[in-house]
Amino acid sequence: MIELVSAERGLAAAGLTFLVQWLLRPVAHRWNLLDHPKGRKDHSHPTPITGGLAIAVGVVVTGLSMLQATVAMYAFCAASILLIVVGLLDDKYDLRWYWRVLAQSVAALVMVYLGGVRIEQLGPVFGLGETSLGMLSVPFTVFATVGLINAINMVDGADGLAGLLVTGALVMLTAAALYAGNGGIADHTLILIGSVGAFLTYNMRLPWQPRAKVFLGNAGSAFLGFVIAWISFSLTQNPGHPVSPVLALWFVPVPVMDCLVLIARRLCLGKSPFIADRNHIHHIMQEGGFGPTQVALALALFSGICGLAAGQAMRMDVPQPLLLVAFLGLCFGWYRLTGRRERVVGMFRALRGHSEPAVVLRVMAGFKGPERSATRVAETEVEAA
Mind telling me which residue stretches traverse the membrane in this protein (predicted)? Predict the structure, then answer.
């Protein structure tokens, strides 16, 4: 059972994040930390991109004031500050992609060498017993961290989407930590859940809030991707409270699948994997008639179902190689399905217009009629130089 003090920490982080977001809105306008509606962007008003900064302040201040200070915590704070600063500079000045990747790699190395968090074993994912990475541990950890950061970055293209997917992942990580007896991880994730939840009150489209008041920005998506990496690696690499590394993939299926499929498709077409386009899953769903809130709710629901199903499969002793093959099959299926855009757009049109889940999502979104499918296009993903 989660202790009351843990819940209080989450509420404290939520309250602080909510307050900081409110205080930063005039600052964002004064310093031009705004996402302007120009080029490929469809939102109609300049919007502050200080959501990530507010989340980071809420998490770091709450953690330092309410948790026991450790070297690992200071390492987390240092890496987070690096990502937030570089992300804000990128939001304001549009840095080259390699500067962002460099900062993400440095943050990952801080996590490894100062935080003591790294991927050392993959479990029996290949059916041949425990797979230890050995000398490949550090480069694999850096690669996985940079990959997760950019996966969250790429999926941040509809109001509320990245925040809901990260919140769902954190909830599932909390459940896995409690099931494994790792209360320390659960304490940390509750702080993160509270902070991201407070951000969503400004970022989601609601009946009383027709558009997002604050965006994550590159700073926010980088911070949240790093958070997911840190928590996932800490949880799955703890011999005292073992959780399968394969399970972590099923907690963030949408960002990882979307990122892998798009990179593979771009490489097959001879394009840079860092180029921005409108082929992300949220773009396709919006083209199929889903509004931004419906996209966020539908993908969050899908992510939760995937995580729950994978968790139950682990409890039923389903071999881990099968779970890995199933995830790769999901990615391959999406790759094939999106090979013909009109086919997948038609599928989403049919789902939205005729299925009961689409009706439920419209009710949950608080809209009596169909939402407009146009929303801001994600400028937050890494672009080519």
Answer: 45-65, 71-89, 101-119, 131-149, 161-179, 185-202, 214-235, 247-268, 289-310, 322-339
Q: Taking residues 312-333, report their average pLDDT.
A: 93
Q: Which of 284-293, 354-363, 376-385 has the lowest mean pLDDT?
A: 376-385
Q: Does 146 score more than 60 pLDDT?
A: yes
**What's the per-residue H, E or C state across the chain?**
CCCHHHHHHHHHHHHHHHHHHHHHHHHHHHCCCEECCCCCCCCCCCEECCHHHHHHHHHHHHHHHHCCCCHHHHHHHHHHHHHHHHHHHHHHHCCCHHHHHHHHHHHHHHHHHCCCCCCCECCCCCCCCCCECHHHHHHHHHHHHHHHHHHHHHHCCCCCHHHHHHHHHHHHHHHHHHHCCCHHHHHHHHHHHHHHHHHHHHHCCECCECCCCCCCHHHHHHHHHHHHHHHHHHHHCCCCCCCCHHHHHCCCHHHHHHHHHHHHHHHHCCCCCCCCCCCCHHHHHHHCCCCHHHHHHHHHHHHHHHHHHHHHHHHCCCCHHHHHHHHHHHHHHHHHHCCCHHHHHHHHHHHHHHCHHHHHHHHHHCCCCCCCCCCCCCCCCCCCC
Q: Give the C-alpha separation, 290 to 107, whole Å.
A: 36
User: Residue 185 corresponds to which tokens in the numbers above?
Assistant: 């991880």
pLDDT score, position 154: 94
Torsion angles phi and psi, residue 206, rounded to 5: -130, 165
- How far is it, in rounded angstroms, from Cα 183 to Cα 191? 13
The per-residue pLDDT for 376 is 39
pLDDT tens digit sequence for 242-279: 788 899 999 999 999 999 999 999 999 888 888 888 89
Flag the least confident range among 96-110, 126-140, 186-200.
126-140
* Total-model pTM: 0.89
Are 259 and 154 contacting, i.e. CB atoms less than 8 angstroms apart?
Answer: yes
Radius of gyration of the chain (CA): 20
Q: Which two tokens stand for residue 42?
A: 């469809």
- How much is the pLDDT for 371? 40
CA neighbor of 80 nearest in space, from 167, 16, 2, 149:
149
